[in-house]
UniProtKB/TrEMBL annotation:
It comes from the Bacteria. It comes from Caldalkalibacillus horti. InterPro entries: SpoVAE. Pfam families: SpoVAE. This is Stage V sporulation protein AE.
Amino acid sequence: MSVKQTRKIIMITDGDRVACKAVQQVAHDVGGRCISASAGNPTPLNGEQLVKQILQAVNDPVLVMFDDNGQGGYGMGEQAIRYVAQHPQIEVLGAIAVASNTEAVSGTHFDLAIDATGHLVQSAVDKDGHVEGVEGMSPALNQRIYGDTVDVLDQLDIPLIIGVGDIGKMEGHDHIRYGCPVTKKAVELILQRSGFNG
């Protein structure tokens, strides 16, 4: 594949060891590629280095991880997201926004969320994949996913954002022994909604 072609990627805002194994498995299952070098706490590569890796991947879709290591604010993961998303040779099919317990973050809107049992839900989910919300809360306030690497997503033109709990975990529901069903469903939804045809 020529590096001059636009590469189609899915952004995933998690990059710890467990998430990396899950994303690698899902990439294999959908016939895509995972940028394993993007895993880490925080993301070890900057945006320019990530683009180089993406352009060298064998085929699409390319799954790329971004992580701020639990820190609020504009960290390395979010800086890399912005650079990659705005690169002229990159087409972002969608993003998987991963919830965490990080405080002092703005969060991001999402289009769909998937709970720990694999059901599509209209409300936000927490780190464990449980539906969040307080009785009487305005729906608008409950349409945001809160995590350490998601705030920048609202500032970018991403066609589909899916909220999920902690990838590869969610109290065992997304464990690799089960094929990481929540993460896989999120990736497959993004591919379907984007019209991707590998």
